[in-house]
Each structure stands twice: as C-alpha cells, then as structure tokens.
Amino acid sequence: MSKDHFYFSRNDRTVALVLIAVIVILNIIRMPGHEAVPDTGSEADSVTQVRKQEPAPKRSASRNRPSADSVRTGSSRTVSSRSTAGYRSRSSSDYRDTVRKREYIKDTVRRYVYVQDNLNASHYSSKDRPSSPLDLNALDSAELVLLPGIGPVFASRIVRYREQLGGFASTLQLTEIKGLPDSLMKWFIISDTIPLEMIEVNKGTLNELRRHPYINFYQARAIVELRRERGNIKSPEQLSLLEEFTAQDLERLKPYLDFR
Fold it and tell me: Per mean pLDDT, which of 46-50, 101-105, 161-165 is the most reliable?
C-alpha cells in the first residue's frame, strides 16, 4: 500500500522537475543585485521618472541672454533688430562724413583757384600796357601772360576756348570764359589776318557738328535730319525753321557756318 501512495509516474516526475526549476529561477531573480526594473507602463513614463530623479541644473546669472539656437532661428528678433539698426546708423553716418569731406575738398579747390586768379591778376597788373590792342587770335599763352591782368590760368583758358571755337569772332566772346574779368577785353582786337575754322554744315557728321561749343546734340541731330529730308542746307534761314535753334543761337553761329 505504501508503494502505491508514493509512486510517481513518468509524467508526474517531469511536472515536478519543471516546478522545482521554476521555483529556483524565481529565487535567483529576487536575489540582491538582480532586481528587475518595474514595468511602469511605457518608455515615456520611465524617462520622466529618471528626469525627476536627476538634480535640477543651476540657472545662470544672465537669464535673459538669448541662446545660440534662438539667434540662429530668428527667435531673438530684438537682438538682430538692434544690431541691424546700429549697422544702418553707422553706414549712414559714414556716408554723410564722406559727402562732407568731398564737399570740403571741392570748396577748397574752388577757393584755391579763385585766390590764384586774383593773385595772378594783381601780380600781372603792374606789367607794361601794350601801346595798341593785340590780335586775340594771334597770341599764344606765353604772349598772353605778358599782358596786364592775365596770368597762366587765364591765358590757358583763353587759348583752350579759342581752339574749341575755331577762333574768336568777337572780343565779346571773352565774357563766355568763366572767371575772366571784362576789363581784359580792352587789350584785344579781332583782325582778318587769321581766318576762322568753319563748320561744314552739309558735310559734317553728327559728332563733328556737336563738338562746337555753340551746337548741342539735339541741334546737331536736327541739322543731319534736315539734310536727309531736303538735301543740302543753303542758308541760316533754313536753320531758323528748326525749333532747336533760337535767333540768338543763329546770330552767334553765323560767322562759323559754311554751306558749301
């Protein structure tokens, strides 16, 4: 009878061994150093608990200072606007300083030229006066300097303007030179010994016509178009039909016009 009560079949022995193995494994797991991490439900909850256990970082003294990320992303608009405003103010200030310096230099040059002209006039006013007026178209700059009231500056201006005109037709044309005193006209006359350089109205190109001080671009173009439409121009009266020319323009142009 006792053997029947304590007899285990093969299946019973297998189940017993499995139960013993499970009990051993559970005891090992519960030992110190092998504690299992409790399942709190989700990974986000576990991360939150770890962050709560970490000590809070200390705040820096400059709490209002924007981070590098905020500056790069444009969130700190106040700082960027201030820096931009400062750059603009510096740029405008530098531009105004540059303009003032340029104006100062120009004003200094104008004053220097004015003083030099007056010094030249006063220096050469003590020279001997010519016994009779001289031909304005025959004098070079060296000869002009010898006359009272004319220095190197005025002499060069007279010669330069004479070359642009093709010769002076009247002493009154000296008044067209900037800064030249009217009192100098008494030293000159215009003779017929030196002919004027004429303007070839029917042959000159637009650029050749406009080189003369008395003809501007629009007047030169009007002459070329009139030639193209009606042929050669024969007299100043035909030019008077053009709205680009006034009576005063034609009056001072007449001595230089060549209609051949």
Answer: 161-165
